[in-house]
Amino acid sequence: MENQKSTVVYNSAKPWQIGFFALNNTATNLYMFVFLFISYYATGIAGLLVVAVSTILTAMRIFDGITDPIIGYVIDKTKSKFGKFRPFMLIGNIILAISAVIIFQTTHLVPQALRLVYFILIYVIYIIGYTFQTATTKSAQTVLTNNPKQRPLFTLFDAIYNSALFIGLQMLISVVLVPKYGGFTQGLFDTLLMIAIPMSLLFTLLAISSIWTKDVEANWGTGEVKKLKFKDYWPVIKGNRPLQMLIVSASTDKLANSTKSNAVTTVIIFGILIANYSLSGTLGLISVIPTILLTIVGIQYARRLGIKKAYVAATWISIFLSVGFLFYLWAIDLTTISLSPINLQTVGFLLFYILLGGAVAIGGNIVIPMIADCSDYETYRSGQYVPGMIGTIFSFVDKLISSLATVIVGGMVAIIGYNEVLPQVGEAATPALFWVGMTFFIFIPILGWLASIISMKFYKLDGNYMKEIQQTLHDRNIV
């Protein structure tokens, strides 16, 4: 047996393939950004109650998680001349476009008695399309590359795209669209859709092109499509400890980031406490380059010492910076934060904002290649190539936990008096709004990151172990 052992030959990808494939995540994030403001459409335009909308969105997030294992099951059983992953990317994006148009263009036109049911039904269709495409972001990584030094590169591209996307669109919302349309009006949502739909389709097509030569039977683990049943999920969950720990870590991170980036949180922090909503977009634009540079440093660290160490380091940095940021925000007069003219308070705010944004970007984006590592570990452990199952088990639990973000935000603002409408740009700041804003922006994220640190102590897929896994799989002639 020893004489058959040879140096592992990785299924490596070209840099442009990794870069283009990361656009699949950007394509779905475009819709995710638009739907961050769905509460404002549903309550302000469609006339649904705040608590009802918060409850529905939470339930839909749970439904989103439930659909994940079903789609993962279908992906793992798929074997077509168009590949295993590419059909789901394209079909999913088409469903996203159609459902987004219907929900934002027609819900407010439906009779009031039917409006809530109609909203729910179209939202369900949207979720199915979203799951189709997002499931491939996690599972198709296994065919893109299995080179431990290449996988962190996905994080670099993904962080750059997401920084440009979320900061650019937030700038568009806060600086251009909200002033132009006088708030979250129908015209604002019409414009958002006209931007998001063609961009998302373009990104999807580029992502499909990146795995065109990779999404073939020779790269599907063992090269065969096994007969799977839903009962096969339990042995994977039970036996794959790294997957268990990554689920705990990433899902609590997602809960933290979902409350931190919620549209209501941004309105409270920038539109009320700082009293300059457009600053949210401007500061985001200023932080793009530093965030990218910090991400590059983090990815180089990950390529040298392994993804796990980079993830843990970024998480600790996020915790320490958040604690410092909290004391800083509590100590200063937030209304003095301004870029015209710039002052010491603004400089301090910028430093915390940029450094924290960079650390969060590294930790949040590096999770996706870690899912591919868990998939390779499952092939190593049990001989099964089930990337769809691995990725969607992860997503299922991740979405169940992160679904709490909407109900937490909606519930807490309702407690302080916002039962029928959400906090609006330009309202007077109150101590209650300050501490609710800090809970969303600081306290909940810190709790999520502490859970990540604890779970990573039991996650054993470090850089050295992944090299051992790939060598073993190579020796078995699996990859």
Number of domains: 1
How many angstroms does the end-to-end distance come to? 17 Å
Note poorly predicted spans. none
Task: Give me the number of helical elements.
Answer: 20
Secondary-structure element order, as H and E? Answer: HHHHHHHHHHHHHHHHHHHH
What is the H level of CATH, i.e. the homologous superfamily? MFS general substrate transporter like domains
From the coordinates shown, what is the CATH architecture?
Answer: Up-down Bundle
Oligomeric assembly? single chain
Radius of gyration: 22 Å
Largest sheet: none
Outline: globular
Mean pLDDT: 83
Would you report the number of β strands?
Answer: 0
| Helix percent band | over 70%
The helix-and-strand class reads mainly alpha
What is the CATH class? Answer: Mainly Alpha
Work out the strand percent: under 5%
CATH topology: Growth Hormone, Chain: A
Describe the structure.
The chain is mainly α and about 475 residues long. The protein has a single domain (about 15-215, about 230-475), classed as MFS general substrate transporter like domains (Growth Hormone, Chain: A, Up-down Bundle). Helices cover about 75% and strands about 0% of the residues. It is built from 20 helices and no strands. Helix 1 crosses helix 8. The two termini are about 15 Å apart.
